[in-house]
Design brief:
The protein has about 130 residues and is of the alpha/beta class. The protein has a domain of about 90 residues: Nucleotidyltransferase, domain 5. It is built from three helices and seven strands. A five-stranded mixed beta sheet has the order 4-3-2-5-6, with helices on one face. A hairpin with a 2-residue loop joins β3 and β4. The protein is elongated, with a radius of gyration of 19 Å.
Length: about 130
């Protein structure tokens, strides 16, 4: 039995899954704004609610596409149920800051005491992505 065609198919499938799997895990791809001095004390294991604003303006709560009005209502519900959670905002660098600031304001109205804005370290800085 010649297994060469089988190996070819398996390798092609492996490559396809290697390319697609990271996209499935992390939701929408976002180019984070970069800074010179990221916070070295950030805790990646902190209980969080992730809000993502994509380059095209779509808003995601965790991995769910949501409208801005629905986002506000859901943030209020989440904060009532789990007060220990913090809000993390991941906004694409191409989006206007005012748009992200509006989400900050709505999160504070919902009861979240603060919002962490995810950023990337500039080239030459000590670490990669930080909050």
């Amino acid at each position: 039995m010649n297994v060469t065609p089988l190996v070819d198919v398996v390798l092609v499938l492996l490559i396809i899954f290697m390319v697609i799997a990271p996209e499935l895990e992390h939701g929408t791809r976002v180019e984070l704004p970069s800074i010179n001095n990221p916070d070295p004390t950030a805790d990646p294991d902190e209980q969080k609610v992730m809000v993502t604003v994509a380059a095209d303006g779509q808003i995601f709560l965790e991995d769910e596409l949501i409208t801005k009005k629905a986002l506000v209502d859901r943030l209020i519900d989440i904060h009532k149920k789990e007060r220990a959670k913090r809000l993390w905002l991941k906004g694409d660098a191409s989006r206007p800051y005012g748009e992200l600031r509006d989400i900050f304001k709505e999160a504070q109205k919902a009861g979240f005491p603060g919002v962490k804005l995810l950023v990337g370290a500039r080239e030459g800085a000590d670490e990669g992505k930080k909050e």
